Request: fold
Amino acid sequence: MSILAWPVLALVAGLGVIWIGVRRGMPRREPLPDGVVLPTTLVQRVSGWALLAGLLLSAGAAGVVVANGPDRTYAEDGVRLLFTLLVLAAVFVVGIAAIWLGRQGRDTSELDERDRAILARAPAVQGGAMLVTLAVWVIGLMERFHDAGAVPVFYLNLVFWSCLLVNLLALPVGVLAGYRRS
Reply:
């Protein structure tokens, strides 16, 4: 398998674990009567925008690595700077949303019991998603660089950033999945 396929597989596996874990952890809801639509809450809107922005910026960073290759991305300052800026922008956007969501979970004045329950359960699979992402990376890097006996430094950088992004993206995914189930 190509070395560039492992980061994609790691991120997809991590996000898949997030989605499955959140979907299984949320109780089933009673179906709404026909024609009844619940309005979206501020928590849902913030989670949706954070997830969209985080995924777009992460995809942009992954596209830089795929288009230039890991070696060129690491070796050329301009390409490495673009990659780093995209990743940091994703961390900033999703991190700010995660901080805001965490504060909303503690401030119960404007939230009902459904909102509080969703915010309490949303981060339940962050650790598992990071572990799956890390496992896919380790297996892929061991297979690719077994004969060399060492992993190039840039790949360790990719492992770190992908685990961090999967962890941050798990919260808005958990919130959105929670609202779909409740």
